Amino acid sequence: MRFPLGMTTKLSKYIAGKRMRGVEKFPLVMMLEPLHACNLTCTGCGRIREYKETIKDQITVEQCLKAVDECGSPIVSICGGEPMIYRPLAQLVTEILNRGKHIYLCTNGMFIKKRLNEFKPSSSFFFNVHLDGMEATHDLCVERKGVFRQAIDGIRAAKDAGFMVCTNTTIYKQTDLNEIAELFEYLKEFGVDGHTIAPSYSYAAVQVKEIFMSRQEIHEKFRQATQILEKYALMTSPIYLDYLKGEREDMQCTAWGNPTYNPRGWKSPCYLITDGHHATFKDFIEKTNWEKYGRGRDPRCEHCMVHVGYEPSAVLGANRKLRDTWRLLKWQLSGGNNGRGRANGKETDKCSPLLPAQTDSSEAT
């Protein structure tokens, strides 16, 4: 199986329960940002630039847990900023796991070895490591030499200790897809559980605009990507990939599917666009004017095809076609490391996680 059975079952029951109760808008993955501070200044990162005035602000563990309970999603992506520099991270992870949630810890990987002994391997927890290419390319993207080596050392240590590990890769206009295939081939050596890929998003705060793609350029890039990368354990759903290739123009964004909570509150309307912040999740859902956003409504949405908005649409069946259910089932039962990772050199019955919250490089750096 591509994903753990427990995670798939819990998410399925959660969605069914919401639909039986007639809930129209509900989250799948909560994007929890305890802080926006980071030890890197990645070229494509919007977070460290958008929130530069509050870059030192942090949320307490108690505030984080209150938001997790309020949101109610079965999956929590702990991101930022760089969450590994959040001192009470281990306590936060433990408390969220104790609530029966599944966690993606999005990181640049530089501090995994240093803090690994604070965590315990679990089928509900994994490290999601940001890698945008092989050593020279990745270090250029994150604007510091040596980051790739440290991330690889962290991945190796985590896999040897029995943890689930996946990677997320942002595809830019200049991305060499053959190099990404080389990266995925290299990561096989360490038993990495899977990979997510998604196009970059042109943040207003990011001045280097030439790295971003138009909608048509994304279509062309991802048609090539699926041909080159299909043999690897991609954790990006086939429905979302159809959309990226231009084969599902009817898909609409499900912006509330991956809501973001950070030191300023619930970010509205989505992970990428900030028109305001709400004090409560209820206010975020009820007071955001969803009808004004999306392609054809807001020019900022015109070229956005990022995971956080459209992977929820694929999972929830927005604009579903008759064969989609079979395709998703077949995809779930295939790929990955056949549900197996490594612990101390031995095979373990662990699988890749469901719906990793991959966006642009800011999520993991």
Brief summary:
The protein is an alpha/beta fold. 35% of the residues lie in helices and 15% in strands.
Would you kindly provide a written description of the structure presented here, covering whatever features stand out?
The protein has 365 residues and is an alpha/beta fold. It has a single domain, classed as pyruvate-formate lyase- activating enzyme (Alpha-Beta Horseshoe). Helix 3 (61-71) packs parallel to helix 4 (89-98). The strands form two sheets. A nine-stranded mixed β-sheet has the order 6-5-4-3-2-1-7-8-9. Strands 10-11 form a two-stranded antiparallel ribbon. Strand 7 and strand 8 (265-269) form a beta hairpin. Residues 338-365 have low confidence and may be disordered. It has helices spanning 5-20, 47-50, 61-71, 89-98, 112-115, 135-142, 147-160, 177-187, 215-229, 238-244, 281-287, 307-316, 324-332, and strands spanning 29-32, 75-78, 102-107, 125-130, 164-171, 194-199, 260-262, 265-269, 274-278, 341-343, 346-348. The chain is 35% helix and 15% strand.
